[in-house]
Design a protein that fits this description.
By secondary structure, the chain is α+β, with helices and mostly antiparallel strands. The chain contains two helices and three strands, in the order βββαα. A three-stranded antiparallel β-sheet has the order 1-2-3, covered by helices on one side.
Length: 86
């Protein structure tokens, strides 16, 4: 997990899965008592910056229609369903 600390206290955290193309964000959260510093946004920006610096072409926000994903510039991509039958 990636943890952002403010004044030594955990303020936000990100859980990411690794991939050869870049991180896949599984979940994130922040301490509401520290909301005035936007720790969730700062942690997300730091994670994206780290992906760019390590040359990863993608930062995958995974599935879901949460508004923050659109605010971050996510573009929906189609998922494929494969059915195998005998």
């Amino acid at each position: 997990p990636m943890v952002l600390r403010i004044g030594g206290r955990p303020a936000a955290g990100l859980l990411q899965l690794g991939s050869h193309r870049g991180p896949m964000l599984w979940n994130c959260g922040y301490d509401p008592a520290m909301a005035q510093w936007s720790p969730g946004s700062v942690a997300m920006a730091m994670a994206i910056e780290q992906a760019i610096q390590t040359g990863r072409p993608d930062f995958d926000l995974l599935r879901g229609g949460e508004p923050y994903k659109r605010r971050l510039g996510a573009r929906p991509t189609g998922l494929f369903r494969i059915v195998l039958s005998r």
